[in-house]
Amino acid sequence: MTARRTSTTLLAAVLLAVALLAGVGPAAPASAAGPGAVSAADVEPMAFADCPSGVICIYIATNGGGLPGWTRLYETSPGRCTFAGIVGLTGLRGVMSAYNRTDSLQKLWTGTNCTGSAAWIYPGNQIVNLGTARWSVGG
């Protein structure tokens, strides 16, 4: 196994472990989930208009879209970092659009642990197309 393949495999394993610890791991198939389970077909997509006050809503698709594929995070204070991968129908995905309903400037980073390049999203603003997937949010 090459060093590049090893590091890619290791990164994928770390991202999956973080997602599972955060409670956003892949869902069990509907047949295994039992009575009352909700399948992806039963979930309505969220939109920017559905984002509640006091949080930053992040989406796996542009224009506040994705099915399923959104989550909300509480404000990340300066110097802190929050993992922002979202589990969608095709596995773990990065953020492609966001709506900041907090009172603070938030930064959406291309790398995990608030590394790489950042897109700044001011309070009350939306970014409809980040262009490049974002994997973490920092204050």
TrEMBL record:
| Signal peptide stretch | 1-32
Pfam (any one): Inhibitor_I36
The alphabetized UniProt keywords are: Signal
Q: Which InterPro entries match?
A: TAT_signal
Any idea what this protein is called? Peptidase inhibitor family I36
